[in-house]
Amino acid sequence: MEYIIGRRRRRPYRERVYRRRISFLRMTEQDCRNTLHLSREVVQQICHIVATDHRHDPGPCALPVAVKVTAALAFLAAGSFQHTVASVSGLSQAAVGAAVHAVSSSLVRHANEQILFPMSPESQLRIKQDFLLKYGFPGVLGAIDCTHVQLRAPDSKAVTYVNRKGVHSINIQVICDANCLVTHVYANFPGSAHDSFILDNSVIPSVFEGDAPMDGWLLGDNGYQLKPWLMTPYITATTKRQRAFNHIFGRARSVIERTFGLLKMRFRCLDRSGGTLQYSPKSVSAFFVACCVLHNIAIRHGCHFDLSEETLQDLRQREAELHVPCHHGELQGGQEGRDRLAASLAHE
Predict the structure, then answer these.
(1) Distance CA 337, CA 348 (A)
(2) 69-86 pLDDT, tens digit each
(3) CA distance 147 to 320
(4) How far apart are CA 141 and CA 176, in angstroms?
(5) Rounded to two decimals, what is the model's pTM?
(6) pLDDT above 50: residue 192
(7) CB burial class (10 A; 0-12, 13-18, 19+) of residue 267?
(8) Bigger pLDDT: 256 or 237?
(9) Residue 155 in contact with residue 281, Cβ under 8 Å?
(10) What are the Cα distances from residue 148, in Å, to 101, 170, 174, 267?
(11) Strand ranges (DSSP E) for the chain?
(12) 173 - beta bridge partners?
């Protein structure tokens, strides 16, 4: 039998072409704000934080820090991989995913440096003064509420993540100051969890009810039980004094609604307008904390974000659709404290 050994034809050599990767360093200030919803100064600060972590643990994603941070911030701002891959050219979806994980993990590790609850007398006094000057409400150490972030059905215990609108979500507790700075975030519960249940299982009650109780209170809506340290509005305001209290209270508490609006409009990944996040609850919780860190850094650097009243009203309406009132009775100590405060506000 005759064998013919053929010589394999060599393919013509083609020079490998590397796609051009874009980072914020190539963007103008305006392009940076339009694409990443942050200033170049803030993005540079994020790069410094991420570079510090990755100097010790570079991880599997060998992209330059500026490219990695730009890709992650573009995803958080848009909430869509397709949009990110299109706007940050030269990166595959896998590379963007690795960058998002690396950057968000780094930001979460630094959350305790950027998200600070007022524990010192000096910080408490500053926050109280801000609420008093801006809203005329004394003794306030923060406004508290929960917000939902939509996600795909988890692989485990999916039914517990279904909220009252029949959508899978996580329910996240946030406290902010009078300037919309996030001072506390607790992202550990599924969408079916009630706001008051999340509060009771957080560290906040022990902070206010510990051996050295704090002098002041939080402002919450009727999703919470009235307590000596947690003011809520009068459910049925029958007197002029109570109606005046509710009016001032509502103005002061609205700062948490504005904080949610700023978070969800600056970082569309947190809002359903950016689409349902195709991630696990653990990853979505990390994204939210990372966005709170970015939000605080942006505010401290004077990087403001325009939020129209129309957009804020739409967000309020959507949040109200998920709101569940608290049916626990009001604590007597809370009632007495609220009545005294109402009399004080009425100058009686």
Answers:
(1) 15
(2) 999 999 999 887 766 666
(3) 10
(4) 9
(5) 0.90
(6) yes
(7) buried
(8) 256
(9) no
(10) 21, 6, 11, 14
(11) 140-150, 169-176, 182-190, 217-219, 230-231
(12) 146, 186
